[in-house]
From TrEMBL:
SMART domains: DnaJ
Residues of the J domain: 3-64
Lineage: Bacteria, Pseudomonadati, Pseudomonadota, Alphaproteobacteria, Hyphomicrobiales
Protein name as it appears in the record: Chaperone protein DnaJ
Region (Disordered): 191-213
Record keyword Coiled coil present: yes
Species of origin: Martelella mediterranea DSM 17316
Keywords: Coiled coil
Origin: domain of life: Bacteria
């Protein structure tokens, strides 16, 4: 995901006229017909298209992502981080007295574990359904009639399979949200002193280890 403000070399609080002026100036230099770089020109065009649209710009400013440019996986990660950021803002504790980033990582790690346990339970259910189907027999005289029980069990097996696929997709989204938190550290205060870089690094490694389990 590109940063349109960085691409155009403008401040985030600039007005639409500044956006347009920056785009026109840079586009003249980068346009392929003027001997410029086509890839750079494409980035300029994409950045301008984003920032000239008030709705898209607002979404990008609020989330750091644009639905039309961002990878679908990233957008799912953003949606999962959104409520965690809200919890961080609404927490009444004094900023610096707790680590909201570590709390986000713990929450995501817990959600991954819950989803994996849910998949195991669904797989057990599906195995039981399949065993019932394997043992289900019908009298020869009923062969021409509808297989009601068999159809219901097969439909139930497919529903469980769909639930498993959804849970796996959810795990991928949670893992992406976790990746998006990498590189962030939060400075805590203890008696007027912030955590040392070594302490923060150890905390990050511990949280990453839990998510990988």
């Amino acid at each position: 995901m590109i940063d349109p403000y960085e691409v155009l070399g403008i401040d985030r609080d600039c007005d639409s006229e500044t956006v347009r002026a920056a785009y026109r100036r840079l586009a003249k230099e980068a346009h392929p017909d003027s001997g410029g770089d086509g890839e750079r020109f494409a980035r300029l065009q994409a950045s301008y298209d984003l920032l000239k649209d008030p709705v898209r710009r607002k979404v990008y400013d609020d989330t750091g992502y644009d639905p039309e440019l961002a990878d679908a996986k990233d957008l799912k990660g953003v949606l999962l981080l959104e409520p965690l950021v809200n919890e961080m803002i609404l927490d009444e504790r004094e900023p610096g007295s707790f680590d909201p980033v570590a709390a986000m990582r713990r929450k995501l790690s817990d959600d991954i574990l819950k989803s994996r346990f849910h998949i195991l339970e669904l797989e057990r259910h599906r195995a039981r359904v399949r065993k019932h189907l394997a043992r289900l027999a019908r009298r020869k005289s009923d062969k021409g009639n509808s297989d009601v029980l068999g159809s219901m069990l097969r439909a139930r097996s497919e529903s469980i399979a769909e639930a498993i696929r959804n849970a796996e997709t959810q795990i991928e989204a949670i893992e992406q949200a976790y990746v998006m938190l990498e590189g962030y550290a939060y400075e805590l205060e203890h008696d007027g002193e912030a955590d040392s870089p070594a302490e923060k690094h150890l905390e990050d490694k511990t949280a990453q280890g839990k998510a990988a389990e």
